[in-house]
Amino acid sequence: MTSSRIRIHYFTDVLCVWAYLAQVRLDELIKNNSSDIEISYHFMPIFGNTEHRIGEGWKDKGGYAAFSQHTHKVCAAYPYLELHKDIWQVNQPKTSAISHLMIKAVQCLVDEGVVNNEADSSLQHRTQFEEFVWQVRLAFFRDAKDIGNMQVLMGIARAMQLPLAEIQRVLDDGTALAAVCRDIELRDGFRVEGSPTYILNEGRQKLYGNVGYRIIEANLHEILKQPKMEASWC
Question: Could you tell me the CATH number of the domain that includes residue 185?
Answer without folding.
Answer: 3.40.30.10
